[in-house]
Amino acid sequence: MKKLIVILFITLSFNAFSQNDAKALLNEVSQKVKSYDNISIDFKYTLENLSENIKQETKGDVVLAGNKYRLNILGVTRLFDGKTLYSISTEDEEVTISSNNEDEADAITPSKMLSFYEDGYTYKTDIQQNINGRKIQYIKLTPIDSNSEIKNILLGIDANTKHIYNLIQIGKNGTKTTLTVNSFKTNTPLSKTLFTFEADKYQDYYINKLD
């Protein structure tokens, strides 16, 4: 009985240490991100579902400044100016205008990509890997909401720079999505109109207003 109590105490102590460790690291990441005026990221996005024989890979880039962003992926530019979201498809010659859907519980949108973990998750330290000479510490996040479509998320953090290296999201339906940061630049000079929708450039496009 005493042995069982000792084992239980050690386990609980380790879990508390693991959670405190994870929280301290996440706080460092959060403070680092918030210290930048803007962030420019080039990334690779992979979606896999082995049971459905699905594997898709694509590249994209995003510029973040406060709650504004400009995201390019799959031939579509998603521009959020802080109030309105514009999805611009040059292939379809169409612009979809809507209010931003940041409030969706499971949506890890561009403006939340580097801070989504601050609310709604429990977390603990996971494995550490050496990737191309970089020490990557993983934090495992589990949604507090039992109805979430997300099973868990592994957030890979560069132990040296405190920047996010990758994000691996496992869905309850077996879908695995991975976002890997290829380039991370900060405080670069930005055009004054980068987050502005310039309507005169899209006069020949079909304008689809959802609101």
Describe this structure in words.
This protein has 211 residues and is α+β, with helices and mostly antiparallel strands. The chain has one domain: Lipoprotein localisation LolA/LolB/LppX (outer membrane lipoprotein receptor (LolB), chain A, Clam), CATH 2.50.20. 16% of the residues lie in helices and 47% in strands. The protein is built from 1 helix and 12 strands. It has one helix at residues 2-34; strands at residues 39-49, 54-65, 68-73, 76-80, 84-89, 94-99, 121-131, 134-143, 150-158, 164-171, 176-186, 206-209. A 12-stranded mixed sheet has the order 7-8-9-10-11-1-2-3-4-5-6-12, with helices on one face. Strand 2 and strand 3 (68-73) form a beta hairpin. The longest helix has 33 residues, at 2-34. It is globular. The chain starts with a helix and ends with a strand. The model is unreliable at 2-17 (pLDDT under 50).
Topology:
Blueprint: H1 2-34, E1 39-49, E2 54-65, E3 68-73, E4 76-80, E5 84-89, E6 94-99, E7 121-131, E8 134-143, E9 150-158, E10 164-171, E11 176-186, E12 206-209
Parallel strand pairs: 6-12
Antiparallel strand pairs: 1-2, 1-11, 2-3, 3-4, 4-5, 5-6, 7-8, 8-9, 9-10, 10-11
